[in-house]
Amino acid sequence: MKRSVLVALALVVLLGVVAAPPAEAQSSIRVTAIRANPEPFKTGNNVAFSATVKNTGAAATNAGTTYIDIFKADTWLAADRLFHAEQPVAALAAGATRTVAFASRWRVPAGHDRFWVRVVVVDPPNEFGEAKSVVFIASCSYARQPKLMVIPNVNLQQIKQQ
Description:
The chain has 162 residues and is of the alpha+beta class. It has helices at residues 2-19, 156-161, and strands spanning 29-37, 46-55, 64-71, 81-89, 97-101, 106-107, 114-122, 132-137. The longest helix is centred in the N-terminal third of the chain and has 18 residues, at 2-19.
């Protein structure tokens, strides 16, 4: 009796291992560049982003999704996220490179001078590819001209005599 239970248990374990789905792999897609337009940008601009992605693997990838997130700090916390967008990316042949332009535009908020941008690609059933992060610094703009300081004409001879 004990032997039949042991055989049945071994059979269940064996079938569970055989029927288990294959483990997910790390994606071979790498984000090689992130661009903003306009660059530099300032508060109030609507900025379009694009990313260059490359398949560094020896086989074609599946179609996937490219994600962009913009943060007000380098913590990568959801509480610091200012913008999120997704854009499909078609399958990539081995070694192929493609530029992905995000359809959603980001309106630059006031009160921050630096923004951390992170782009990553997922090609199911693989996990995330290698992300790229960059820091963009917003340019300053002034609504009026600063006042100029006027220096009166000075006679150098008088200064030397004093």
